[in-house]
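If you are new to this repository, start here. Below is one unmodified record pulled from the training split, so you can see the exact layout before writing a loader.
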Amino acid sequence: MPPALFCGNFSSIVLRGVPKEAGTDTKKHLFFFRKCAIIFGYILKKGDKMAKKSYDDNSLKSLKGPDQVRKRPAVILGSDGVEGCRHSVFEILSNSIDEAREGYGKRIVITRYADMSLEVADMGRGIPIDFNKNEDKYNWELAFCTLYAGGKYDNNSGDNYSFALGLNGLGLCATQFSSEYMSVEADNGTWHYSLRFEKGFNVTGDKEGKGFIRSKSSGQSGTVIRWKPDLDVFTDIDIGDEYLDDVLRRQSIVNDGLVFVYRSEQEDGTFEETEYCYEHGITDYLKEIVGDTAIGTPQDWTAQRVGKDRDDKDEYKVKLHVAIAFSNKVKLVEHYHNSSWLEHGGSPDKAMSQALTSQIDTYLKNTGKYNKGESSIKFSDIEECLVFISSNFSTQTSYENQTKKSITNKFIYEAMRDWLKHCVEIYFIENPDEAVKICEQIIINKRARENADKIRAGTKKKLTGTLDLSNRVEKFVDCRSKDVTKREIYIVEGDSALGSVKLARDSDYQAVMPIRGKILNCLKAGYDKIFKSEIITDLIRVLGCGVEVTSKANKDLSSFSLDNLRWNKVVICTDADVDGFQIRTLVLTMLYRLTPTLIREGLVYIAESPLYEINTKDKTYFAYTEAEKTRILADVGDKKYTIQRSKGLGENEPEMMSLTTMNPDTRRLIKVLPSDAERTQEMFDLLLGDNLQGRKDYIAEFGSRYLDDLDLS
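And here is the target side for that same chain:
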């Protein structure tokens, strides 16, 4: 390494302004930093030269073979975490479902082994393995080792897989490439084929070098694939029973009569089996969800349409199937396309919301259900009482991406929208009494939403409004400074404490907010009750930062912004007795539930007030604990002294309050830290929440520790 590289420049920068009399340690540290700077500068300069040299016409390269997936699994599978691993399972399952939908097999068995490997077995025609004359390759190379190779590209012609879930020729190959190993058994009714892959490569080891072992068929056609996702590719391969339970239940809903068997290996080596089957698909599922809570009769509508997404595109077929009901007890909206659950909806969801809103709004206007000047309904008003399940199939599908959670077909949207409007219109004409009941419930939902919106808007305004002469908080005493980095707010106990704290404070940067009585327990109370409490809403307005509301029903009230906080320190100041401790705890509980960020950011403090005042002829001592009192008395020795228990804050002299509680140079503040947030939440919920039995058990076990602290007078 060149010893003089950057030496002059960094020497002058590092040593400039250092006094000659600086100690040896200081000079050693500076010498060390100078050497680091020299080395760092050399690395940067060398790195720049290397970077400039290395990027040229030979710098680009393409990934080949398994590396196409193993190096970037998220591109095809959506993630390199457990989500991507789960999607790879769905890709294998999809092929078996497509076979069953074509009429080959009515039973699919999925097994999850204790070593995290998985197996999917179907009774289809068997994956083609042997030689493909058209491609001049073995089919196993196309299916398992070639991206964008498959048998479902011509599904619009009506030959094979007209309504297939797997379309792109990616899933099986991507899953194989991302596996630690994959074993395949495929039987076409004539021949039985066996293959094995490891880390993306065929390691079957057959004598003829074909990449498979062939034998006579057993007579039962089908495919069995067992594989283990590779931890070198995924960060987590534990897909969990819950995921497979959800996937198989959903697939049984949209594949009428198809039986799914899930086998999960237990610790003792036995298998726990669960069977999923809905004989009449989404119709049975709708009845299961609604039960006897339906307003009117559940409906089942089907149709077929042919169209195109654009004039210059090919026509394709769409099968539409909807099960719909209305209920004031349950609500649910789910869309499926070619068996895939559309978690993010897309075209069907857009068609549903527009069709129902438009047609029901027209009915309400035509029948005079709106009051004069009343606004129209929104889809959210319908959704509150809607149970809607769609399962559509099309010969061409535009998925948003390979994870297949949303579709974007323009024709499917237009066809479904117009068809649903027509179905609703006919249903209301043929069932006028049911139409009236359904629309009355929707109107009730609308007016309830509007009233709730008004209440939320008023509460939000009250919580976040500015403090001025027209919007004053009673008995709040502000400070003069507008510098948020200096301002402190003291939350004190009652009017009596307000007087002494007000006189003891530095009015330039210390403000005071008294709490009138005991504050509401915010862990037991609901948001509606919390925001009706004047003590709490006043305190939130004084803080200025708004609240963090996690409840879905009240999320509109969430308006928290740390930038709007008016204070550098929020100090809780209460008496050093049982009542004071309880009020302090309730204030902390309120902050913990409504503004937890203040605690996480270290902005909440507790002002520690002394338990004892000890006076001698020439000095006054304050003891904050019993141990401190003992130590002070030992220091006083034989001197005469007086000792008295500290009074409430309201009875203390302003000079004492300033010295012990307000003056930054002499006060004691305890910063509230979220060092163990989970433990804190557990204790808050246990001691202040609704778990009465848990609280009793805790007191019975640990209550003896606190007997000396009880105020039984």
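Two things worth knowing about this chain: The chain has four domains: 7-50, 68-276, 282-453, 465-609. The longest strand covers residues 316-326.
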